Structure formats: structure tokens, C-alpha cells
Amino acid sequence: FYGGPGGAFQMPASYAAENPFGWNDDDELSDEAMEKLDGYINELLNAFQEFYRAPKYRTDIQRALYLYFGPVRMKQGVSDDEEAVQQEFRAFWDFFMFDYHLMGNDETPIAAFAAAKSDSFSNEVQFVLRDLQKSRVTVFCIEAIEEDAIVCRNLFSGDLMELPRPEELPPDARKLLFYGHAFLVSLLDYPV
Question: Which among 4, 20, 79, 154 would be 20 to 30 A from 10, CA to CA?
Fold first, then answer.
């Protein structure tokens, strides 16, 4: 993100030129294409979690759990609310994948996973994996709340994006800021 004139903040260049499939931002993805993309992401996430369940990563996982949940939460144990547990662990895996650094080599788990496993995936899945590695933490605000979506603005780039509307929104949702990992290339660049 840095490296502009005088070390100023600068957004990274798009890597759409890497896309051998010819999608561009003017195209729309069909429901079938979105379903394929969802399948690619699920394939990666399942393989990622399986990879890090290996005994050699046990200490890293335990350390990451401690860093993410904190000592008090770790002593409390797991909630009885299955949905709450699933949400917590989805958020944990997001933290682990992108933000945690492995003790053995200081790489993010997604980078180490890609280096070890990328060749075992199809070209389409490799493309998604490269995009995941280029995601960055960013801050969003809600610009509009529609019937089935929320329109958010990336406060770093100014880009607008439409996200699925959650089942519940707080009454002051338009006043809130939230953060997450943003993919730096449009979904329309995916080979689907």
C-alpha cells in the first residue's frame, strides 16, 4: 500500500492483466458463475483448514486462538449456542488466514498454504488463491441499505461495493464503521 511519492499511501495496481479469461468490470456474473466462484472458495477454505490441522501446526493454531480470543475467553470455553460458535470460528479462521504470522517463518498462513499447495488446484482455484493473497484489511461504511443488499464504501479507496444484507442491522447501522478483508480486484475478473 505504501511506496508512492515520498512514501505516501498508494493503492496497489490492479492485476487484471494476470486474468487469462478476459472478464472485465463491465461484465456481469451470472448466478451460475457466482455459484462456481463460491465452489472455488469453499474448496480452498476446506483444503486450508485441513492443511492447518496437521500436527506440525498445532502450536501455531493454539497460539492464534489465544491471540484472537484472549486469555479470559479461552478459559470460558465454548458456548452452547451453535450458531454463535460457528460465527466465532469463521471470524477466527479469517484472522488466522490473513493476519496471523506463523512462528516458524513469519509468513501469513495463506501465503505458506499457497506455496505448499497451489499446484494441487485447478487454474481457476489458483486464480482465486492468488486473489485471496492480495486481500488487505480495510475499513468500510454503509452508504445505503436496500431491500436485499447494503452498499458499502471502502474508506481507503472510495470504491463502492454491494454486499448481501444481513438478517439483522442495528438501527444506527449507517453511522457505523466496520472492517474486513477486501479483495483488490473485482469479482468480475474471476475465471468462471
Answer: 20
Distance CA 113, CA 191 (A): 21
Quote the CA–CA distance of 99 and 94 in Å, as a whole number: 8
Region of 48 on the Ramachandran plot (φ > 0 left; ψ -120 to 50 alpha; else beta): alpha
- 149 phi, psi to nearest 5 deg: -155, 160
Torsion angle of the four alpha carbons 19, 21, 22, 28, in this order, in degrees rounded to the nearest 10: -100
Task: Compute the residue count for the chain.
Answer: 192
SS (H, E, C) 12-71: CCCCHHHCCCCCCCCCCCCHHHHHHHHHHHHHHHHHHHHHCCCHHHHHHHHHHHHHHHHH
Q: What DSSP character marks residue 156?
A: T
CA distances from 86 to 24, 82, 83, 156 (A): 35, 6, 5, 30
Q: How many CB atoms neighbour CB 33 within 10 A?
A: 17
Q: Name the percent of the chain lying above pLDDT 70.
A: 76
Q: Which residues pair with 177 in a beta bridge?
A: 141
d(CA 189, CA 19): 7
> Residue 64 corresponds to which cell in the numbers above?
492464534
Question: For 129-164, how does the pLDDT look when each residue is reduced to its tens digit (9 = 90+)?
Answer: 998 888 888 888 999 988 888 898 988 888 888 887
